[in-house]
Amino acid sequence: xxxxxxxxxxxxxxxxxxxxxxxxxxxxxxxxxxxxxxxxxxxxxxxxxxxxxxxxxxxxxxxxxxxxxxxxxxxxxxxxxxxxxxxxxxxxxxxxxxxxxxxxxxxxxxxxxxxxxxxxxxxxxxxxxxxxxxxxxxxxxxxxxxxxxxxxxxxxxxxxxxxxxxxxxxxxxxxxxxxxxxxxxxxxxxxxxxxxx
Length: 197
Ligand SMILES: CC(C)(COP(=O)(O)OP(=O)(O)OC[C@H]1O[C@@H](n2cnc3c(N)ncnc32)[C@H](O)[C@@H]1OP(=O)(O)O)[C@@H](O)C(=O)NCCC(=O)NCCS
Hints:
By secondary structure, the chain is α/β, with parallel strands linked by helices. The strands form 4 sheets. The chain has a 7-stranded mixed sheet with strand order 2-5-8-13-16-18-19. A 5-stranded parallel sheet has the order 1-4-7-12-15, with no helix packed on it. The chain has 2 helices and 19 strands. Bound molecules: coenzyme A. Coenzyme A is lined by residues 84, 117-118, 133, 135-137, 149, 151-152.
C-alpha cells in the first residue's frame, strides 16, 4: 500500500474528488433549475430529497446528506452547516382540532455552522441558532438557541456556549476539497522542508 502522501495516491484522490465535484455540480445545476436557492458551492448527497426545491435556501459550503426537505413552507440553512443522513426537515402539519383537519405549514430556519446529526427530525416553525448541534435521532419541536447542544425526544438543551468552528469547512467531509489535494500534491513534489543550517 502506498503511503498517504505518495504523489500517485494523492493524484488518485484528486481524480476521485474531481469526479465527485463534477457529479455534485450537475446535481446542483438540476436543483437550481428546479428553484433551489443556493448562494455558493454546497455538497448535496445524490439521495437527498426536496419536495419543493424552490422553497429551500442553502448557504455556502454546506454539506447536505441523504436528508428529506419536506418543504411545504420555506426552509433556510445558513453557511457551513451540515444536515446529516436521514434527517427530516418537516414544515407541514395538520390542525388536529379543526373539523377539516386543515394543513398548517410553518418555515424552518437553521443558522450558520449548525450540525444536524443522523436521523434528527426538525418540526414546523423551528429556528436553530448559529453554531448549535442537534444530536442523533433528536426530535426538535422548539427553537434551539445559538451554540446549544440538544438531544432526545423531545429535544432538550444539554449544553450551551458551543463556539463556532471558524476554520472548518464541511465541504471537506464530502471529499470535494480539491484545493487541499493540489496543495498536498505540490508539497509531495517539493519534498520535505530543508533543515536550517
Ligand atoms: C450530540 C452529540 C454530538 C453529543 O456529543 P457529546 O457532547 O460528546 O456527548 P457525550 O457522548 O459525552 O454524551 C453525553 C450524554 O448524552 C447522551 N447522549 C449523547 N448523544 C445522544 C443522543 N444523540 N441522543 C440521546 N442521548 C445522547 C449520552 O448517552 C450521555 O449520557 P450520560 O451522561 O447519561 O452517560 C453526539 O452524541 C451525537 O449525537 N452525535 C451524532 C452522531 C452522528 O450522527 N454521527 C454521524 C456522522 S459522523
